[in-house]
């Protein structure tokens, strides 16, 4: 890129020190902070050839030295330096630069956790993420857990007299440190081993001699598996909070509409009367079962392993594992074979898949109820909201449609989690790449979906009058079973009773007749039932007489 004059100031609020925009490139993306210079990353106006991974336009890299003009970086600066890219890290050794003109990286979104090419990222897009959950999966959070495992292990080793107490205490000098993700990436580019890279960086904080007993008798899986389970437990706690919000919303709406009559449907066809309260109550019961499963799944993954190579404790005392697990709120894994058994994780992700299906179940009901020809309920439509770019009249169920899609993403992790159960002998790492993706993606997605669903339920607009109008659309037809049962009670055999009721019901379907009127005009029906008995079968209260019993079963 050629040097040039500096243009107008960039208003991007995510940059602490707003850089300058090139006059010919108004789409400034971010700033790279190098050791000796600042690097400005700009998106070109015309899309060039695409990176094989990012599938994004290339970005130009220019160097801003002091207050001088933008300059083209030299080859050494680009190929050998590491640039800090507005909070995410670009390592040319890992993410090679195509040439001096272009640096092929995905365009930065400030709410992402990491660069799309950096290890340990949450790949879920910010649109479907909540910061509370993405924070659990941030590299900074991960490295903090790694550090705590190593420090607690050193304490336990010192208690056993395996290492000097002074060395154990020295490790805690880094307790308030912010581990440099870029530096760890830089070391890993050489070592090709993430845990070793972290341990090397930890030694830079506390001193090489003080760190010589860190990781004593341990293996990488002790750190990685225990950390993964800590993250899953923390994620489960957020998911449980989300489910509690959904359950509270469902219970509130169930009580509100306990006696609101609507037509029940089977196969999408009018069946018999029910209430909107029962609809909410059955979803409450389903989500409550899901919550109980998640509590169990959380307990199942709340284990840790500090057992060393192949899990035999040959080089580390089991007391170290017990100490570390107690500090992290975990239970020692009874037998780890170097890795924690993945059937635990399979059950965890399968549970998330079931919860996602329950979310879709509720969302699908709302979508049906919002159809124009049904319109028994609809998502809240806020002032200024627009439903279509082409048709101003539209009010679409976009939130529940979105939830249907998000449920598919959550379920997508279930089969890979099941396949992770099978590992070679005492361990392999075929599960690792899978879990680096499905751990954050699945929990982040489900967390977002639960809170979106809660909002939909809390604000769902209910139309009781439309419910009654829909039920009466076929003029009493939905009372056919009561008439059938009354005929059999009156002595008519079931086959004949079914034919009597059906022949009158078909007149309603085919000619729009009134069901009660047709029955009262049928001599064969009147031979078994009086007119008053027939009319009594059309009482709506008959269908709601046990609502209280059901509510007591569901809500206690």
Give a quick precis of the structure:
With 556 residues, this protein is of the alpha+beta class.
Count every beta strand, where a strand is a DSSP E run of 2 or more residues.
Answer: 13
Principal-axes geometry comes out as elongated
What is the CATH superfamily classification of the largest domain?
Fumarase/aspartase (Central domain)
Class computed from helices, strands and strand pairing? alpha+beta
Strand content: 5-15%
Indicate the radius of gyration in whole angstroms. Answer: 32 Å
CATH-level-2 architecture of the largest domain: Up-down Bundle
What is the number of helical segments per DSSP (H or I, 4+ residues)? 20
Structure report:
With 556 residues, the protein is α+β, with helices and mostly antiparallel strands. The protein folds into three domains: 1-110, no CATH class; 220-308 and 325-469, Fumarase C, Chain A, domain 2 (Up-down Bundle); 477-537, Ribonucleotide Reductase Protein R1, domain 1. The protein has 20 helices and 13 strands. It has helices at 75-80, 131-136, 139-159, 165-171, 181-191, 194-206, 220-256, 276-301, 318-328, 343-370, 398-411, 414-419, 432-459, 464-471, 480-489, 494-511, 515-520, 523-526, 531-536, 547-555, and strands at 28-33, 38-42, 59-64, 70-71, 83-85, 88-90, 102-103, 261-266, 269-275, 303-304, 331-332, 377-378, 461-462. The strands form four sheets. Strands 1, 2, 3, 4, 5, 6 and 7 form a seven-stranded antiparallel sheet that branches. Strands 8-9 form a two-stranded antiparallel ribbon. A hairpin with a 4-residue loop joins strand 1 and strand 2. Helix 3 (139-159) runs antiparallel to helix 4 (165-171) and helix 7 runs parallel beside helix 13. The radius of gyration is 32 Å and the shape is elongated.
């Amino acid at each position: 890129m050629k040097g040039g004059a500096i243009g107008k100031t960039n208003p991007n609020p995510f940059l602490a020190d707003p850089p300058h925009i090139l006059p010919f490139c108004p789409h400034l993306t971010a700033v790279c902070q190098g050791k000796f210079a600042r690097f400005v990353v700009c998106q070109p106006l015309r899309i060039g050839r695409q990176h094989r991974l990012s599938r994004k336009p290339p970005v130009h890299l220019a160097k801003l030295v002091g207050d001088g003009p933008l300059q083209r970086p030299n080859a050494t600066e680009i190929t050998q330096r590491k640039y800090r890219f507005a909070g995410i890290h670009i390592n040319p050794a890992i993410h090679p630069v195509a040439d001096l003109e272009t640096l092929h990286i995905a365009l930065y979104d400030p709410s992402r956790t990491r660069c799309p090419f950096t290890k340990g990222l949450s790949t879920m897009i910010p649109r479907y993420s909540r910061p509370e959950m993405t924070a659990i999966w941030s590299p900074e959070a991960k490295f903090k857990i790694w550090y705590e495992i190593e420090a607690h292990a050193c304490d336990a080793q010192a208690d056993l007299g395996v290492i000097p107490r002074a060395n154990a205490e020295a490790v805690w000098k880094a307790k308030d440190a912010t581990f440099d993700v870029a530096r760890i990436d830089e070391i890993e580019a050489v070592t090709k081993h993430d845990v070793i890279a972290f341990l090397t960086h930890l030694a830079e904080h506390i001193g090489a001699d003080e760190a010589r007993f860190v990781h004593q008798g341990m293996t990488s899986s002790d750190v990685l598996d225990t950390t993964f389970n800590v993250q899953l437990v923390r994620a489960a706690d957020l998911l449980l909070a989300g489910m509690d919000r959904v359950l509270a919303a469902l219970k509130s709406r169930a009580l509100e509409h306990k006696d609101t009559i609507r037509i029940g449907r089977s196969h999408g066809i009018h069946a018999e009367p029910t209430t909107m309260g029962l609809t909410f109550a059955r979803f409450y019961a389903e989500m409550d079962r899901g919550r109980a499963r998640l509590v169990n799944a959380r307990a199942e993954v709340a284990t840790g392993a500090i057992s060393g190579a192949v899990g035999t404790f040959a080089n580390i005392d089991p007391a170290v594992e017990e100490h570390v697990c107690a500090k992290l709120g975990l239970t020692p894994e009874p037998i780890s074979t170097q890795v924690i058994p993945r059937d635990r994780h399979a059950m965890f992700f399968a549970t998330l898949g079931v919860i996602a299906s329950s979310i879709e179940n509720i969302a699908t009901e709302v979508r049906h109820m919002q159809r124009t020809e049904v319109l028994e309920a609809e998502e809240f439509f806020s002032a200024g909201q627009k439903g279509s770019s082409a048709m101003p009249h539209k009010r679409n169920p976009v939130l529940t449609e979105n939830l249907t899609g998000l449920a598919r993403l959550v379920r997508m992790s279930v089969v890979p989690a099941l396949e992770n159960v099978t590992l070679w002998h005492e361990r392999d790492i075929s599960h690792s790449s899978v879990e680096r993706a499905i751990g954050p993606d699945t929990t982040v997605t489900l967390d977002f979906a639960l809170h979106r669903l809660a909002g939909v339920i809390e604000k769902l607009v209910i139309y009781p009058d439309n419910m009654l109008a829909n039920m009466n659309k076929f003029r009493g037809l939905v009372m056919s079973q009561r008439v059938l049962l009354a005929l059999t009670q009156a002595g008519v055999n079931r086959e004949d009773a079914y034919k009597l009721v059906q022949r009158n019901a078909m007149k309603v379907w085919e000619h729009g007749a009134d069901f009660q009127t047709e029955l009262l005009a049928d001599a064969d029906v009147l031979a078994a039932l009086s007119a008053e008995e027939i009319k009594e079968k059309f009482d709506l209260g008959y269908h709601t007489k046990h609502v209280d019993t059901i509510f007591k079963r569901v809500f206690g």
